[in-house]
Amino acid sequence: MSAYLIVDTQIENATVYEEYKKLAKPIAEKFGGIYRARGGQLDIVETDLWSPTRIVIIEFPDMKSARAFIDSEEYAPVKPLRQNNAKCTLFIVDGS
What we know:
- The structure is a single chain.
- The protein is α+β, with helices and mostly antiparallel strands and about 100 residues long.
- It has a domain at about 10-35 and about 65-90.
- It has 3 helices and 4 strands.
- The longest helix is centred in the first third of the chain and has 17 residues, at about 15-30.
- The termini are close together.
- The model has no long low-confidence stretch (mean pLDDT about 95).
């Protein structure tokens, strides 16, 4: 069953974040990740719990693959580029 890594990102340093995007994408793809949305236009309908900023959705073959990407040695040096240059909410959800 597919799993989706979903990130809501408020970019604080666009220059460094562009470098992060270039480095993270091939690593996600190595773990079977397919980018389904990457900061496209939002049509926000309801905001009772949170108001999204910039949404990224990456589809993985399963939860294990998504978690393997996040916890991988390859991603470890890249993750701080995101964490230090953007505020994020990140979660993985099972598909149906």
